[in-house]
Amino acid sequence: MYLCVSINSLKFREMKKVILLCTLAVLMFACKSTSATSTNTDTKAQVAMKGNWEITSVTYPGSQYIKVETFQLADSDCFVGSKWKFISNNNKGNMALTKANCVAFSSPITWFVNKNGQFVLKVLDAGEKARKVKDGYILSLANQTQTSFQLVDKIDVGGKMTDVVYQFQKVN
């Protein structure tokens, strides 16, 4: 009788280990990251963005009363007229602020569009590698055509999420 109890308790301990390992494996896969940077890219959307673009307007509710600092660089009004170049085959490019009475700024960028329609952007310092830049911006891509598209940022204004819409127009 003692021998039967020992064998059964040994099997029970082994079974508990197997169940514990299976539970841990399920939890690891269930907790898979859904980060904007860990999803696949939307190649079709990216190829459509290839080329030279200009921001023709920046709109958001209450713009006459509040100021929005875009990408921690300048007032959103300073982005109207800014020039952007997107290279789709290596996800690089550059952007330049050129509006009068605004800070002049030019920088290389890296970017991509993920399968969720999110535009992921990193503004780089000259010579800096994208993998060394830890901060970036995630905006929604909207209303994309061959000659225009919008990037939509969400900002908190008095506890209410508000859309800031950057209208891009293709430049020949």
Model description:
The protein is of the alpha+beta class and 172 residues long. It folds into two domains: 2-32; 37-170, Lipocalin (Beta Barrel). The chain has helices spanning 2-30, 43-48, and strands at 51-59, 69-70, 74-75, 83-87, 92-97, 105-113, 118-123, 137-142, 148-157, 160-170. The strands form two sheets. It has an eight-stranded antiparallel beta barrel with strand order 1-4-5-6-7-8-9-10. Strand 5 and strand 6 form a beta hairpin. The model is unreliable at 20-36 (pLDDT under 50).
Number of domains: 2
What is the strand arrangement across the widest sheet? 1-4-5-6-7-8-9-10
Name the overall outline: globular
What Rg do the Cα atoms give? 25 Å
The biggest beta sheet is recorded as: 8 strands, antiparallel, barrel
Q: What is the CATH first-level class name of the largest domain?
A: Mainly Beta
Tally the helices: what do you get?
A: 2
| Poorly predicted regions | 20-36
Average pLDDT figure: 79
| SS content category | alpha+beta
Helix content: 10-25%
User: CATH topology of the largest domain, anyone?
Assistant: Lipocalin
